[in-house]
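Following up on my earlier thread - several people asked me to post the actual chain instead of describing it. Fair enough. Here it is, all 144 residues.
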Amino acid sequence: MKTRVFPVPVDLKILRVAARRNFMPNHMNLSVALKTLEIPIFRVRDGRSGIPKECWINVGTDSENDIVLESDFVEPRHGSFAARSDGTEIAVYYQDHGSHYGSYVGSERISRASLIPPEHVNIGRVLTNNGPPLFEYELIVYWG
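Reply from S.P.:
Thanks for posting it. Predicted structure:
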């Protein structure tokens, strides 16, 4: 996997990870926002930016996770987002922890992916595959 890094925008304040659950009642797609976590971006005297060390956001059904999901198709410790910075560039990753049902960027199953926000990671069961697949959960990493 090639690491994709990007410059820290001057006005950057927060990196967010949001979880959204998709439903298909009566063949209509409905989404419910579940939780948004924030990683603050700090500024230091020399104008460089970064995050406090390396930040992790854990996702799964276990109550110890930062984002707790309810599904028979999501593992207790399904995956994690990580962000790290050297002060001028930030790298954001998603790591699947060997889950049976997998994690996907688009429709491609991944074990680890380098992300450039805004980007979606999909987990859980596939609700429909008429056209692009609609997964039970979307995890969205984006700038605030």
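The mean pLDDT is 79. That should answer part of your original question.
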